[in-house]
Write a structure and sequence with these properties.
Radius of gyration: 24 Å
Catalytic activity: 3-methyl-2-oxobutanoate + acetyl-CoA + H2O = (2S)-2-isopropylmalate + CoA + H(+)
Shape: globular
Pfam family, one: LeuA_dimer
Distance between the termini: 45 Å
Number of helices: 18
Bound molecules: 3-methyl-2-oxobutanoic acid, zinc ion
EC number: 2.3.3.13
Family: Belongs to the alpha-IPM synthase/homocitrate synthase family. LeuA type 1 subfamily.
Structural class: alpha/beta
Helix content: 40-55%
Number of domains: 4
Strand order of the largest sheet: 1-2-3-4-5-6-7-8
Subunit structure: Homodimer.
CATH architecture of the largest domain: Alpha-Beta Barrel
Strand content: 15-25%
CATH topology of the largest domain: TIM Barrel
Length: about 525
């Protein structure tokens, strides 16, 4: 089969907002280092624009965007700003070191948003559009303007705002489906209409930005492209506000696998999709749904006898793309207590991880300890171990030891030793069951008001010596965080997960400026 010719007019810009819209979703907090790791992978995989954060939101966001701007080699680095000059100025300062920089400034244009959120009349909003884009153009030639809640905006007003934004210098026009309300046919017509009716529409690239509230984000994005948009805003694993955003891996592979009916192309190296998915899942502690398209654990698994039989005869019977094409490596390297550092590093590479320095040393020590306790160390064990290593590298509270007395005669009792900012503390507590005793120790050693919203245990592999992977979600005021912990001992895994969530909450407390976040999209 000959490769289809790729014309520049069919090239779709991939704008990744994992670090902004993705990180904004409840519980998906990333540390500074984690954001840098994610940005590096996005840059390597060929993302065209990295939306690195919302610089006015907090000092943490500002420094992350600023550092990503310094380090990124290929992609355009973009920061988000509301229609206020202080937002735009701060954003411009954060992205200043980037070789290629973009300011993304947005304003609501729908009747419901203008009336209740902005409390402004349409003519005031119209003037603000011109002012915000003009201000952003003082700093860079690459300015994106978004009509927030674009799909619920009156078409005449939308066209007027788009025309004004382009006239003021916007080079990309994004029409978001902020509330995940549109349908493919509707979104297609919206882009077609706006592009036909706005006289200067040929001077800007049009962009789709979809939320998945009705499960149509990917279909809607592709429909918008059919209507003439040439930029897709998306996130790894589809993380994002509420039900999430368009999943990068899904739109990219849809265009690749079904190019005869979706005749557009991107610069993404699809063999890095699995690695990016695993990294984002690890740093956010958001598990990837097993049956998730492209990157789910079962995406290439064939269970039924009929399917297995077909696969053995010819893989194309039930496979529309190969696992290798999205970076799934079929490895035959079985790991155990005799495996050395070299084999461990190779296994990590096969699984898509790139660790170095202390992180690699620590992961190897953890692997050896696990192999001493467990006969077979499976790929899933190593993934859980490395994910935890990545997620806990910056933790201020660390578990040093835990012992628990449990059984039929309560009350159960736990003794826990923690290291908090280098200081060792110890506590002994009772509880209504061993998990309760463990969590009571944590509450005594690290007093806090956070509520436990989710406690979930699952086995990483099969067998009674399998590692337990525990997920914990904590919420405090308007902040929600999720963390995972893995260990062959379920109670140790529980303690690690709870402490991981507390560590994330501490980061979030430091970075949130409530007044700056109040009007975020
Ligand atoms: O969903 C939305 O409208 C947004 C904008 C800021 C683009 O995230
Ligand atoms: Zn959004």
């Amino acid at each position: 089969m000959t490769a289809p010719t790729q014309s520049e007019t069919d090239r779709v810009v991939i704008f990744d907002t994992t670090l902004r819209d993705g990180e904004q979703s409840p519980g998906a907090t990333m540390t500074h280092e984690e954001k840098l790791d994610v940005a590096e992978v996005l840059d390597q995989m060929g993302v065209d624009v990295i939306e690195a954060g919302f610089p006015i939101a907090s000092e943490g966001d500002f420094f992350a965007v600023n550092e990503i701007a310094k380090r990124t080699r290929n992609a355009v680095v973009c920061g988000l700003a509301r229609a206020a000059f202080k937002d735009i100025d701060r954003c411009a300062e954060a992205i200043k070191p980037a070789a290629r920089k973009r300011i993304h400034t947005f304003l609501s244009t729908s009747p419901v948003h203008m009336k209740h959120k902005l409390q402004k009349e349409p003519h005031e909003v119209y003037e603000m559009v011109i002012a915000q884009v003009t201000r952003a153009r003082d700093y860079t030639d690459d300015v994106e303007w978004s009509s927030e809640d674009g799909t619920r905006t009156e078409i005449d007003f939308l066209c007027r705002c788009v025309e004004a934004a382009i006239k003021a210098g916007a080079t990309t026009i994004n029409i978001p489906d902020t509330v995940g309300y549109t349908t493919p046919e509707e979104y297609y017509t919206l882009f077609k209409t706006v592009r036909e009716r706005v006289p200067n529409s040929d001077q800007a690239v049009f962009s789709v930005h979809c939320h998945d509230d009705l499960g149509m984000a990917v279909a809607n994005s592709l429909a918008g492209v059919r209507g003439g948009a040439r930029q897709i805003e998306c996130t790894i694993n589809g993380i994002g506000e509420r039900a999430g955003n368009t999943a990068l891996e899904e739109v990219v592979m849809a265009m690749k696998v079904r190019n005869e009916v979706l005749p557009w192309w991107t610069g993404i190296d699809a063999t890095m999709l699995t690695r990016a998915s695993k990294l984002v899942s690890a740093v956010t502690s958001f598990p990837v749904q097993y049956n998730k398209a492209i990157v789910g654990r079962n995406a290439f698994a064939h269970e039924s006898g009929i399917h297995q039989d077909g696969m053995l005869k010819n893989a194309q019977t039930y496979e529309i793309m190969t696992p290798e094409s999205v970076g799934v490596k079929q490895t035959s390297l079985v790991m155990g207590k005799h495996s050395g550092r070299h084999a461990f590093v190779r296994k990590l590479e096969d699984l898509g991880y790139k660790l170095a320095g202390n992180q690699l040393e620590d992961a190897f020590v953890r692997f050896k300890a696990l192999a001493d306790r467990k006969k077979h160390v499976y790929d899933e064990d190593i993934e859980a171990l490395v994910d935890e290593e990545i997620a806990t590298a910056q933790d201020r509270i660390k578990l040093q030891s835990l012992s628990v007395i449990a059984g039929t005669h309560g009350p159960q009792r736990a003794t826990m030793k923690l290291v908090i900012d280098g200081r060792t503390v110890i506590e002994e507590c009772e509880g209504n069951g061993p998990v309760d005793a463990v969590f009571n120790c944590i509450k005594a050693l690290v007093p806090h008001e956070a509520m436990l919203e989710l406690y979930q245990v699952h086995a990483v592999t099969e067998g009674t010596d399998a590692q337990a992977e525990v997920s914990v979600r904590l919420s405090e005021a308007d902040k929600t965080v999720t963390a995972k912990g893995a260990d062959p001992d379920t109670l140790v895994a529980s303690a690690k997960a709870y402490l991981g969530a507390l560590n994330k909450l501490m980061i979030k407390r430091q970075r949130t400026k409530p007044e700056a976040m109040a009007a975020t999209p």
